[in-house]
Write a structure and sequence with these properties.
- The strands form 2 sheets. The protein has a two-stranded antiparallel sheet. Strands 3-4 form a two-stranded antiparallel ribbon.
- It has 7 helices and 4 strands.
- It has about 180 residues and is of the alpha+beta class.
- It starts with a helix and ends with a helix.
- It has 3 domains: about 40 residues, no CATH class; about 60 residues; about 55 residues, no CATH class.
Length: about 180
C-alpha cells in the first residue's frame, strides 16, 4: 500500500476507532473500505456488557458485591458534583496549610452529609411530586423556599427581640418533614 494511502487509512482508523470492523482494499490506486458485517455481528454479543475487575479474593467479596460496589460509585460521583455546583455553594478555595485543607474538606463533606439527610427526610415531598417537567420540588427549590424565611433583630421603644417571618404553608410542610421548629 502506498505511504499516502497508509496515512489516510491510519487517520481514518484513529478518527473513528473502528479498525476491526472495516475491510480494506486498494483498487485503481484508491483506498476503499467496507464494513465487515461478520465482525460487527460477532461484536454485538458484547453490547451492553462490561467487565469489572477486583483484586479482592472471591472468598472475601462475591461477584455480585463487587458489581454493587462499582454501581455505588455513581453516588460518590453525584456527591462530588453536588458539592462543586451551586446547590451547596462550596467554591474552590486554595489553601497552603494542611490543617486548612483538612478543614475545607471536612466542611464540604459535612455539607454533603446534611444534604443527604435532608433528602432522606424530604423523600415524601419528592415522592408525591410530579415527574420530570411537571415536578414542583427539587432540592434546589426547597432551599429557595427555606431562604425566604427570615429572622431579624427588632428594636422598638427600647425593647429588642428577634422576629422570624411566619412560614407559608409549603415552607411549614418542609420544616415539619425536616423536623425543624422555629
Amino acid at each position: 500500500m502506498p505511504p499516502s494511502l497508509e496515512r489516510e487509512r491510519a487517520r481514518f482508523l484513529a478518527q473513528y476507532k473502528m479498525g476491526k470492523f472495516v475491510k480494506w482494499e486498494v483498487k485503481e490506486g484508491k483506498l476503499l473500505g467496507s464494513l465487515d458485517q461478520k465482525a460487527v455481528k460477532d461484536e454485538e454479543v458484547w453490547d451492553g456488557c462490561y467487565v469489572i475487575r477486583s483484586d479482592v479474593p472471591k472468598e472475601e467479596l462475591a461477584a455480585a458485591q463487587t458489581v454493587a460496589g462499582y454501581k455505588k460509585l455513581e453516588l460518590v460521583e453525584q456527591a462530588f458534583r453536588q458539592i462543586k455546583t451551586v446547590q451547596l455553594e462550596v467554591r474552590p478555595v486554595y489553601h497552603k496549610l494542611d490543617r486548612r485543607i483538612r478543614s475545607h474538606v471536612f466542611l464540604c463533606m459535612l455539607a454533603y452529609y446534611l444534604q443527604w439527610h435532608m433528602k432522606q427526610r424530604l423523600a415524601p415531598l419528592f415522592a408525591q411530586d410530579g415527574r420530570e417537567k411537571n415536578r414542583r420540588w427539587s432540592f434546589a427549590n426547597v432551599l429557595e423556599r427555606l431562604k425566604a424565611i427570615r429572622q431579624q433583630r427588632v428594636r422598638l421603644n427600647g425593647i429588642e427581640f428577634n422576629q422570624i417571618t411566619s412560614p407559608y404553608q409549603d415552607q411549614q410542610k418542609i420544616l415539619e418533614l425536616l423536623k425543624v421548629k422555629l
